[in-house]
């Protein structure tokens, strides 16, 4: 079924049919209703691929995230999708697993599909990386603290504040030192969380040596268990652990249980993100709440705003404040 057949059946031009499909507000109500009735009776479905070829762009939006195995990023995706679906966009989701080569491959593939709008949690951000995005024709909103890059829209959480809240909470309970468990520290979010934790340590009158770091390869439960084993093997007993995300914290908790530790009597644990599963853990976990759904919505809203009024649009950086949620693990 083609648009010409619809036009012939309705007795109108193909341009009128196209307007009914794409710009119904410019067509007289009677004509619009007549053409729509013909479309329905013939079962005509517009060819999106053809429209993409003629317009030079797709209506789909790329959503490139670290990994949807983490419920926090699933929440981001859900928030973004709710906004984009209402705006008439299809969401194409890609998972990078913190692999820069995989990220680059996805960005190339999205550009080849004529996708021009992108929401992304980038592994690393630099001026050169942003320039490559623009060369691909991709208009982007970063889900990332892009304080050093004001020429792009971004949404982020004040991770330094979140780290400070976690450390302040542990210090107030009498812990003299804190072990920070994290995935790769060369990424912005865990680095900010570490800096906030250190800020609280130094403000308490302790030295930098009161903050130890255990760095593993990823932000997963499996890597958390590995980190937990390192924590248990430390020469000096560890009484307080702050983890860069909840999955790591759940892994540390599992290792502590296996090692015969009581939580929080022998070891207090604080996570980060406040995913649903920390409430149902063996010991409900204290964590820093970050609204992933709200982050996703805010990022998508910025993208839609720029799409609808590109000339009037001004790049914005929206920062969300985290909050500590106290439960039984501390």
TrEMBL record:
Instruction: Output the CDD domains linked to this UniProt entry.
Output: HTH_LacI (cd01392)
Q: Which residues form the signal peptide?
A: none
SUPFAM superfamilies reported for this sequence:
lambda repressor-like DNA-binding domains, Periplasmic binding protein-like I
Domain of life from the UniProt record: Bacteria
Q: One matching Pfam family, short form?
A: LacI
Which segments constitute the HTH lacI-type domain? 1-55
Keyword annotations = DNA-binding, Transcription, Transcription regulation
A molecular function (GO) held by this record is: DNA binding
Q: Which InterPro entries match?
A: HTH_LacI (IPR000843), LacI/GalR-like_sensor (IPR046335), Lambda_DNA-bd_dom_sf (IPR010982), Peripla_BP_I (IPR028082)
Q: What is this protein called?
A: LacI family DNA-binding transcriptional regulator
State the organism named in the record. Streptomonospora arabica
The upper taxonomy is: Bacteria, Bacillati, Actinomycetota, Actinomycetes, Streptosporangiales
